[in-house]
Amino acid sequence: LGYNESMRIRLLEDLMSKKRNRKKNKQYRLLLFLGSLAVLLIIAVAGLYVRNENRLTGVQSKMSEYLKNKYKEDFKVERPEHKHGGFGVNGIWMSQAYLVSNPKLKFDIDCSYLNPSDCSDQYIAAIWSVQASKELEAIVKEVNASSGNGYKADSARAEIVLSEDLVDSVNKQSKYEDNKTKDKGFLYRLIIDAPNDSQKASYIFKIVEKLREEGVYSVKIDTNSKNRSTGRCTVFLDKKDLGSENSLNDCINKTGE
Questions:
Q1: CB of 211 closer than 8 Å to CB of 190
Q2: Contact 215/180 with Cβ under 8 angstroms?
Q3: 102: Cα separation from own chain's centroid
């Protein structure tokens, strides 16, 4: 009986050992499978990343070639981004660029998603923005001098934005003075921050009136406001809609979302 009992114990131990080994083998195979899956996933992600980086580099190169061919100067184009794409919509490539010789003069460039050589840029607008800001500086000084109570802006600058046919028709020989009076394709962004009190709208409109004396009617006022959501007030003006101090004041003091 003692011998038989010993044999049964040994058989049970062997059986348990085999079960443990089978369980270990299953765990090992599962780990091996999961490890292989992880490696394949990493390879796939790395491949997509490399392919995407190569494509971005190609788009960046096309943008640089477009600018060099158009203006005969060397430009540095920053990393492009795909914007405004969606279901059934290709979107566009967008980036910022600057002259290698003048990194401070940055401007926007956007190109066709399918053909990155088909582009439009704001290089001339950036050059004109510098000229417009100098013009604005003189106007602000004049308005400040006429203000009897010392009210003045904290900061003011101009940013020119070109669009429609004008953006593609201008070149380095085109002059700001000849184009600032145009109604189509030309926008003068008056970016101005000033104390939010009862004088603000009147003060800004004095600047707008001075711009109109220079022939500039297509103006977008962009100023700080009490708006809780954006903190900005934007108002578009042109020859068809001259706007008013009251409407600007309402925009500045609007506190809703």
A1: yes
A2: yes
A3: 21
Q: Which residue bears the tokens 């940055």?
A: 106
**Torsion from C-alpha of 215, 220, 223, 227, nearest 10 degrees:** 150
- Among 158, 143, 141, which Cα is nearest to 216's? 158
- Predicted TM-score (pTM) of the model is 0.78
Q: Confirm if 153 and 190 have CB atoms less than 8 A apart.
A: no
**pLDDT tens for the 257 residues of the chain, in order:** 455 667 666 766 666 666 666 766 777 677 777 778 788 788 877 776 667 767 788 999 999 999 999 999 999 999 999 988 777 788 999 999 999 999 999 999 999 999 988 999 999 999 999 999 999 999 999 999 988 788 999 999 999 999 999 999 999 999 999 999 998 999 999 999 999 888 999 999 999 999 999 999 999 999 999 876 789 999 999 999 999 999 999 999 886 55
End-to-end CA distance of the chain: 91
For the chain, the C-alpha Rg in angstroms (whole number) is: 33
CA angle 40, 43, 46 (to 5 degrees): 150
Q: Give me the sign of the Cα torsion angle 151, 157, 163, 169.
A: positive
Cα 31 from Cα 202, distance rounded (Å)? 74
- Residues 223 and 249 sit within 8 Å (Cβ to Cβ): no
- β-bridge mates for residue 83, sequence order: 92
The Cα 130–Cα 31 span in angstroms is 63
